[in-house]
Amino acid sequence: MTPATAEDLAGSALLRALAPEELGAAAPLFSVRRYPKGAILVTEGDRLDVFSVVLSGRVKFFWRDDDGRQVDIAVVGPGEDFAAQSLGGEPMLTSVIALDDLRLASIPVAEFERLLLGHPHLALAYVKRVIDLFRHSMAGRRSFSMEDVYGRVTELLLASAVETGGALVTERFTHAEIGQRVGATREMVGRVLRELARGGYVRADGGRFTILRKPPRHW
Q1: Does the pLDDT at position 145 exceed 50?
Q2: What is the pTM of this model?
């Protein structure tokens, strides 16, 4: 581990609430940690003793039921953090795995709490961050309770698509990965994707999906 620098932390969506001189003073409180792709950072039930900011790479939050079935909850990338999961001392409800080679800047929770108390504007930014995460979580729960598999699959494809060469193209997914993200079996996902392709809404190419036209909300 090595001490973090203000440059390391400058991309943090939360810590940018600090003025440059405040960020420079806070940076030595953070340590830079490295993890290889596939490393399990947190196991469901753990209590986190550090607050961490992702400097590079991505992590995935997920849980598995007693039968070993996995549901992916969220993917967190550079500039994002484990804010809502770190404070409070409660056991983690999810496990966390590194999707890429990973660099984190971590600070002991007690030190982070003192940082919040010493900088009210950072504490306010933290509260807003937690509220935003809560709203996102509620939107996800609404989707799971009110949308069928078709709706959840199309919502995922549209949300992950970015403009590439003049077309909207998703990240690379397998049917199993989509199923984990939307809470459905691989077979159900495959059925939805075949129907979308047959209807001229998407085109599959090497694990990525090109959005040809926006699918209808309901099939």
Answers
A1: no
A2: 0.63
